[in-house]
Amino acid sequence: MIWPTMRSWIPRAAALAAVLALLGLVTTAMPVSADRGSRVPPTGTVSWVSLGDSYGSGEGIANTGGTCSRSDKAYGPYAARLLAAQRAWRIGKLSFPACTGAVTADLFTDDGHQPPLAPQVAVADREVGRSDVITLSTGGNDIGFSGVLIDCIAHLPDSWDELGTGGPVQSGCTATESELNDRIDSLMRPHQMPVDGKFTGRTVPRMADVYKRIAAEHLTDRGVLVVSGYPRIFQPSSDWPAWRGNSCQMFTKQDADLLGSASERLDETLAKEVRRADPTGKRIVYESRLDLFDDAGRSHSLCGRPTTEWLNGIALGLTDGSLRWLHSFHPNEPGHAATAEAVATLLEGTLGRTVAPTTTTTTAASQPEPTEPISTVPETTDPPIRSGGRYDIGDSFEADCTIAWPTAPTRLSDSISMTTTCTGVPGQFLFVDVQYGDPDLPVTSSRARMRVKGQIADIAQNEYGYKYLVVLADDVTLY
Fold first, then answer.
1. For the chain, how big is the Rg over CA atoms in Å?
2. Which among 354, 373, 408 is the end of a domain?
3. Sign (positive or negative) of CA dihedral 139, 145, 147, 150
């Protein structure tokens, strides 16, 4: 076995603070509009339904499986917990019929399984009735996107050496950009559901009419439907490091960019249909997972510069024992955590009640003429909704860690560096490189277990493709 070489990297607190400030990761007080008011929880309990396909059920999260592969870490139920924990929302009845493989028709009719699964909205009506919140992820299977992904897996060269040096990897995609665009554009008109890869099945109306039907028939008077889109799977090939050559995750650069263009068009189409369904943006709203995962240029899609990837690559379910290849190219735990934060924040702004700020007024005669500019104290606001599960640079870190065999602690003049494995850390990170400012910490390879608290300082990746977190520890407690 070849063990990845670990680069010595000792961050300094001042340098880290400067980097984080430059990246906008240090929280500072920002002025807030005077008429913003503050948000308080909706009155009473909030009923909640999570509908849709594998991007809503939690397929891709470790240890999921079965027919529908549902996980309580999926973004829908996760967002409900965040609002309950951080905004004091009272979450009442919750229904979660989202299911891997679902097409839009499965919302309204049985899905043809043996035995068939009941229509998702019928399950929700039985368990909740009309709902205050409905989250929905659907449309990807309507256009047969999973089949496109499978078709695009590249024809590999004869050796890994050829692959790693940009050898003759051949494009796998047979679908053209025009064909993919036609599939996506079909969502804006009545369209057929694919059966065994062929579009000969049930028909549903355009997506805007689907959204309007769900809102009219299944939302309460104050309810909000949140439609979540789909991220791009791969970062643009122009952002791939040179050592990847022409391929990543068995996809060529050409095919990855083709799928990226399709993802952009799908995102634009779904957003357009939401606006068509509700031009006011108050009852039906859109959460762009493409924009979220792109993260203003710090993409969390696959294959780019070192980052926390919010999607799985090719996965066989070996690490979690599920033996489930369907985890491939689905959001993982950090991806659902980030989506849950965004959805919870969106709902706070739409369903949360606004309380007007308290103001005092005085007559013009009683106001002294100002002689100097008046400085105002910015209005305080609630902190952002955070899950703690994104694993971005600058995030706080706390986990139980163990020195990774066969490594040993490395002691420097003023600190110690430890290569560890830590509980709860996403499987994409092979190790956590813990840096701590006590060279005399009595940890050894045999006395190797510890509780680590600190901050994620960097994300590293070697040329074998292994990723690891670099954590600057504030406290290390040995067991």
1. 25
2. 354
3. negative
- Contact of 381 with 389, CB cutoff 8 Å: no
One domain for residues 89 and 202: yes
**Omega before residue 334 within 30° of 0, cis:** no
E strands, 254-355, where? Answer: 284-287, 353-355
Residue 461 falls inside a structural domain: yes
In a domain, 362, yes or no: no
One domain for residues 140 and 73? yes
pLDDT in tens, 392-414: 999 999 999 999 999 999 999 99
Buried b (16+ CB within 10 A) or exposed e, 307-321: bbbbbbbebebeeee
> 140-161, pLDDT tens digit by residue?
999 999 999 988 986 555 554 5
pTM: 0.84
Q: Are residues 401 and 276 in the same domain?
A: no
378 within a domain of the structure (yes/no): no
Q: How many other C-beta atoms are found inside a 10 Å radius of the C-beta of residue 92? A: 14
C-alpha to C-alpha distance for 302 and 233, rounded to whole angstroms: 6
- The DSSP H or E segment spanning 432 is strand 429-436
Tracing tokens 């634009």 back to the chain, one arrives at 268
